[in-house]
Amino acid sequence: MGDVHQYLPSVGKSGPQAKPDDQSEWAVKQAAAAWEKAVRESPLQRLRYYDARLARAGFSSDPAERERVKERVAELIREVGAATVLTDPDVVSMVRELFGEKGVQRLRDRANTPVERLPE
């Protein structure tokens, strides 16, 4: 049992002559403004931003860009801390995508290792 009607995809047919309509432009501007505000709030938000960038279709076509993102994500993970990163499932999946299961396991090990304080 399936649909009686065949639905044609509407990709690229947003407005006349495949131009985006005002509502689409507004949504894109709002999303950009929201990310611009969010990345200033905390390093965890910046990790979420990189997760969103990696999720975009066609992002990984340039291996050099992917490597730059990987290096920046590693810096942000060190800044945020392993325990905090492990609380966000989206960031954990990004770590798994960039660094593999070994990267997630290293985070778990780091989060479970007690921190020794240096004598003052």
Can you offer a commentary on this structure?
This protein is mainly α and 120 residues long. It has a domain at 39-112. The chain contains 5 helices and no strands. Helix 1 runs antiparallel to helix 2 (43-55) and helix 2 (43-55) runs antiparallel to helix 3 (63-80). It starts with 21 loop residues before the first helix and ends in an 8-residue tail after the last helix. The mean pLDDT is 79.
Task: Detail the topology: elements first, then pairings.
Blueprint: H1 22-41, H2 43-55, H3 63-80, H4 82-85, H5 89-112
Helix pairs in contact: 1-2, 2-3
Which structural class matches the secondary elements? mainly alpha
What characteristic shape results from the CA principal axes? elongated
**Strand fraction band?**
under 5%
Which oligomeric state applies?
single chain
Low-confidence stretches: none
Q: How many H/I helical runs?
A: 5
Q: How far apart are the first and last residues' alpha carbons, in Å?
A: 73 Å
Mean pLDDT: 79
**Helix-residue proportion:** 55-70%
Biggest beta sheet summary: none
Cα radius of gyration in angstroms: 20 Å
Q: Count the E strands.
A: 0
Order of helices and strands: HHHHH
